Amino acid sequence: MFDNHRPNQSFPLLVKMLDAQQSLSIQVHPNDENARKFFAEPNGKTECWYILAAKPDSVAYYGHQAQSAAEMQKDIKNHQLGSLLTTIKVKPGDLIYVPAGTLHALGAGIVALEIEQSSDNTLRFYDFARIDPVTGKQRPIQIDKAIAVTNFPNHIPDEKLTQPVVDFDNPAITSILRSPYFQISRIKVVGKTQITHQHYSINVVTEGSETLVCDNQEYQIETGMTFIMPTPIKNYWFKGNLTIIQANE
């Protein structure tokens, strides 16, 4: 079903819908090497956000300005987080690639589709002094471990990875991310579109509602639905007017 993945392996990718009504905690994930070193797990967690909705002037926390771990420790000690962290403005339709080792968080007012390596390794760097309603205390943070897996200096991904590339054979498909860990495409259907693929895919309908035709069966799909096309299925069709974000390895 998932190419060469064995039944006892983790699900290949994680896909989540995030609704940040307030700024999420600033966190970082280890890369593959640090996942093995600190967590004894096979892979780290590189991810991306596809922005579905955003209030005017919404921002995401993305990266930092420290040149070394020592400089970051000094800024934290001097309560200079405001000048340490960097932000970027976001709008619907943006694709933001977040390599492992990048400090990051969605700001308030953003709804995003998050696609990532299959891992739950998360180190919380800062949580805006929020109180856990269950414990009545501030939620724990892991600054030392977070700094240990953070990239220094901050790594900015090559813009070519997220440059939109229209499929020559099927202009309804636009590649919007090509990373070593997963590929993301946006499919805009107007009328009828045939999809041919060689690998499994995870699909999220982000706009519209119409019909998926597969193995001579019709399935109604609509905004917010997620479905998987397994590897053995090589051809299928979309009919109607809709937008789909598709992820695969």
UniProtKB/TrEMBL annotation:
Keyword flag Cell wall biogenesis/degradation: no
Originating species: Fructilactobacillus sanfranciscensis
Pfam family, one: PMI_typeI_cat
Domain Mannose-6-phosphate isomerase cupin: 173-246
Residue ranges occupied by any Phosphomannose isomerase type I catalytic domain in the UniProt entry: 7-40
Top-rank taxon, per record: Bacteria
Descriptive protein name: Phosphohexomutase
InterPro entries in UniProt: Carb_Metab_Reg_Kinase/Isom, MPI_cupin_dom, PMI_typeI_cat, RmlC-like_jellyroll, RmlC_Cupin_sf
Keyword DNA repair: no
Record's keyword terms, sorted: Isomerase, Metal-binding, Zinc
Gene Ontology molecular function terms on file: mannose-6-phosphate isomerase activity; zinc ion binding
